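EI: anyone free to look at a 203-residue chain?
SC: sure, send it
EI:
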Amino acid sequence: MDKTLNLSALIMAAGLSSRLPGANKLLLNWQGIPILSHTISNVLGAGFHEVMVVLGNDEDEIKSVLKGYGDEIKIISNPDYKKGLTSSIQQGVNASDDQTHGFLICLGDMFGIKGSDYRDLAQYHLLKSLQDEVITLPKVGDQIGNPVIFSQSFRSQIMQHDDPEGCKLIVKAAMHSVQYFKSTTLQFLQDMDTWNDFHRLSE
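SC: here you go
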């Protein structure tokens, strides 16, 4: 597929899976394949300019899962992964192409979002983002989901952000820049933090 979507897709795969004791959720198998592999394949299917996977916890085990992707993905190591999600986002943003039009921040455990869903969300974002600062969020009914897309103009804010739990405060402070991609795709709401989530989403 032509990589026509000039966005950097950053897949977050560095976390501690602290609410799922005894396993790294990204390495759990679904349909015989690790969950992270489903996520990466779906993101690759959208046709982004570049796809980066940010690693930290269980890095060696996850790298072995990623061998088959070759140069389709760029692997980024986050030595500060224990400091929280923001440190991983910053590693990905820092390593992204200077010419990118923005950053799609994907959660590695949201394995149900299809490539076409990512593409539709990205195309919606790119319609507006060339004109201005834009943050795009998927919205299903009255619920806000993931992934979030930040225009390139937010790069410095993301790099200077000091809340360890992600970029929600950046979104909150820039509500004038937020647009919602309205969708009926429930997978935009379905991340996986616990064993109950895994069993529910695996059915």
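EI: The chain is about 30% helix and 25% strand.
SC: 👍
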